[in-house]
Each structure stands twice: as structure tokens, then as C-alpha cells.
């Protein structure tokens, strides 16, 4: 490229570049700057107000020696793995069923997607009532004659995280279903015809042909689900407030409590940094799969 052509390249699509300046500044100042500020102050002993009194890794040592944080990380791992697996499996199965051109497809799609329109607080309160042992599912079933029936996950510290998982799946699976359905509708009908002509069973067609072709949809769904997992907070507060005891604590609630109730900003920043690290662990592989593969191609 000659030197005379470079200015022309610079001013090409000038309106679009000018319009993107606020977004770029927002990303740099708020997101990047805020993240760097959080990481910096995680190495201080800030209490009520942030102050640059560095204490090295003391906040992190204290963080990983606190039982409450360890419980919250364990809960997030259990919740995250199960949420990821069940959201993808249930979402794909619902999409595959709707892709069969069933009657009242629009009605079923609306019913499945409707919970996603509700806030997490509303969803948490609804499922808090449904899982109440006196008024919810357990009370209804016992009223029908099954007196020995027990279903009170929110009041059992061993399984309380599964009660939260039920509410999360009820709300979020509909969105994954719509993404999967859009991906299925993008598959050429000739592929299905060729599979039928070759006598390939439907299950194998999905596993070895359709699902590999829907890789971008699965990656997008994976990122959306992972982002929701890391920041889960509303459901826990609405359903259990972290109880019984600390049995349903999650990292986001730990951060909030230490920053606004315990007035220990340094500890809250350290926990926030660990959450940021978990986001990076998700984003980097996604970026590599999305952009690295394209460059190699």
C-alpha cells in the first residue's frame, strides 16, 4: 500500500468510527479501568474507604482460609457444572422437539421462553413458594394422600443448591432452546434427506452431523450460561439469603456482603478479582475458538 492510500484507509467509514468512540471510551474507562482499580486495591487493607496501604497477598490468604468463601466456591462449581450440562441438554432437546413442526409451536415456544422475561428476584420468590414444605409441592402432594413424601431442598443444607438450580433452569432454559432452535432451522434440509437415504438413525444424525454443524451456537450458549453462572446472586438472595446457615453462599453474595455490610473493601476486592479471573478463564478459550480458528482457516 502506498503512502497516499493510507490516509484514505484512515478516513474510510469515518461516521461509523466516530459513532463508536463513546463505546470504546466506556469499555476502556469503565470496564478495563474499573477492573484494574479492583485488582490494585485487592492488595490493600482497605476497610470502609479505599486506601493505598499495600499488604501484598494477605487478603488472598485470608480469602482462601475462610470457610464461607470455600463453601461459596464449592456451591458455584456444583451449580455451574450442573447448570451448564442441563441447560444445554434440555435446551437442545426442547429445540429438537419444536423443530419437528409440531402443532401450536408458537404457543409452546412462548411458554418455554416466558420465564426468561421475569427477573431473577421474581423467579426466586416464585420458587421459594413452590418449594415451601407447607404450601408448595410437598404440601400439595401430602394433601393428596402421600404423607411420607418429602421435597424441601431449600430447607436442607445438603441439597439447597439443587433447589436454586431448579429455579435457574426453569428461567434460563427457554433462551437456550431458542438459540438451539435457530441453529437447527439453519441446517439445510438436504442434509436430513441425505441422512435418511443413507439409513442413518436419527440419534446418530444429531450426534455426528447436526451437533458438529451447530458448533457456533453451542459456543455462544456456553458463554451466555457461563456468564450467568459466575454472577449468580439474585436467585440465592430471593430464595435462601445464603442459608440454611452458609449452605447456599455464592461468590457474588460474599463480595456484596463484605463490601457493603462488613465494610471490608480489601476482602471484597480480592473476592471480586477471583471472580474476574474465572470470567477470564471462560472468555479466553471462547475468543481462541472463535477468532483463532478463523485466522488459521
Automatic annotation (TrEMBL):
Q: What is its main location?
A: membrane
In this protein, which residues make up the domain named ABC transmembrane type-1? 73-288
| Segments crossing the lipid bilayer | 21-43, 76-98, 110-130, 159-184, 205-230, 269-289
Task: Supply the SUPFAM superfamilies for this chain.
Answer: MetI-like
Annotated GO biological processes are: transmembrane transport
Which cellular component terms (GO) are annotated to the entry? plasma membrane
Signal peptide residues on this chain, from the entry's feature table: none
- Its membrane topology: Multi-pass membrane protein
Q: Under what name is this protein listed?
A: Sugar ABC transporter permease
Location within or outside the cell: Cell membrane
- What InterPro entries does the record tag this protein with? ABC_transporter_permease (IPR051393), MetI-like (IPR000515), MetI-like_sf (IPR035906)
Keywords from the UniProt entry: Cell membrane, Membrane, Transmembrane, Transmembrane helix, Transport
The record, for Pfam families, names: BPD_transp_1
Amino acid at each position: 500500500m502506498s503512502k497516499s492510500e493510507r490516509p484514505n484507509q484512515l478516513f474510510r467509514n469515518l461516521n461509523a468510527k466516530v459513532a463508536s468512540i463513546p463505546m470504546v471510551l466506556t469499555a476502556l474507562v469503565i470496564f478495563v479501568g474499573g477492573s484494574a482499580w479492583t485488582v490494585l486495591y485487592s492488595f490493600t487493607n482497605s476497610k470502609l474507604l479505599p486506601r493505598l496501604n499495600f499488604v501484598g497477598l494477605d487478603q488472598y490468604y485470608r480469602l482462601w482460609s475462610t470457610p464461607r468463601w470455600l463453601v461459596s466456591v464449592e456451591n458455584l462449581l456444583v451449580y455451574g457444572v450442573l447448570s451448564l450440562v442441563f441447560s444445554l441438554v434440555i435446551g437442545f432437546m426442547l429445540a429438537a422437539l419444536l423443530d419437528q413442526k409440531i402443532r401450536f409451536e408458537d404457543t409452546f415456544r412462548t411458554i418455554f421462553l416466558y420465564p426468561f422475561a421475569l427477573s431473577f428476584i421474581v423467579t426466586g420468590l416464585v420458587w421459594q413458594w413452590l418449594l415451601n414444605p407447607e404450601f408448595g409441592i410437598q404440601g400439595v402432594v401430602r394433601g393428596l394422600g402421600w404423607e411420607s413424601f418429602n421435597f424441601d431442598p431449600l430447607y436442607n443444607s445438603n441439597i439447597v443448591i439443587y433447589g436454586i438450580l431448579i429455579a435457574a433452569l426453569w428461567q434460563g432454559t427457554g433462551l437456550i432452546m431458542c438459540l438451539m432452535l435457530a441453529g437447527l432451522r439453519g441446517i439445510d434440509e438436504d442434509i436430513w434427506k441425505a441422512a435418511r437415504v443413507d439409513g442413518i438413525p436419527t440419534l446418530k444424525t444429531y450426534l455426528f452431523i447436526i451437533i458438529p454443524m451447530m458448533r457456533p451456537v453451542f459456543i455462544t450458549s456456553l458463554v451466555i450460561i457461563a456468564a450467568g453462572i459466575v454472577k449468580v446472586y439474585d436467585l440465592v438472595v430471593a430464595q435462601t439469603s445464603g442459608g440454611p446457615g452458609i449452605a447456599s453462599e455464592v461468590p457474588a453474595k460474599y463480595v456484596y456482603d463484605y463490601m457493603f455490610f462488613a465494610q471490608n473493601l480489601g476482602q471484597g476486592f480480592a473476592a471480586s478479582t477471583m471472580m474476574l479471573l474465572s470470567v477470564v478463564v471462560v472468555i479466553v478459550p471462547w475468543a481462541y475458538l472463535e477468532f483463532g480458528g478463523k485466522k488459521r482457516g
